[in-house]
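look at this record:
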Amino acid sequence: MSKEEMIKEAVEDAKKAAAAQEIEENCEENAKAEEAETAEEHTEEAGEETSEEKEEKKGFFKKKNKKDKKDEKIEELTDRLTRQMAEFDNFRKRTEKEKTQMYEVGAKSVVEKILPVVDNFERGLAAVPEEQKEDPFVQGMEKIYKQMMTTFEEIGVKPIEAVGKEFDPDFHNAVMHVEDEELGENIVAEEFLKGYMYRDSVVRHSMVKVAN
């Protein structure tokens, strides 16, 4: 090979080496650029995710602060049920009270109708002469009278005390007045018709004579 050919070949080799080096440098620059672009994209994505997380957190706290529709409905139904239970309890108490009052009114009405029979027993027994009190018929009437008074006492009926007591318009009905130095002022001197009470209410007032 001549000297000129050797120089020409060396020049060609040098050109090829320079071109190869240039290509390699361009590849490295492109790779770096791609890496930088990828890192930038990741950074932007990370920033977007952070913003989304913040929005989600805001939404979460908003949901926490604002009651759910189901919870509101449950509270509404619970309040309605509580009100209805209170109304029902008041209705039950009112009904029981009305039943008790109706029972007492009915019982007083029955007792009031029986009292004239008791009065006739007392008048009849008081009119029996002393010598006839041992008569079996009279003793039988006395037993019936005592049984009736015992039954009255068991159901809550009791006579009103009158003679010797201070006159009380809530229990006594004054039909006569008398002056008597032996008795105090406003004292019941005599009872004409016995009064009766059923539990705490008056069935019939005592008809009395009041002294002074």
Remarks:
- The longest strand covers residues 172-178.
- Helices lie at 3-65, 69-126, 136-155.
- The radius of gyration is 58 Å.
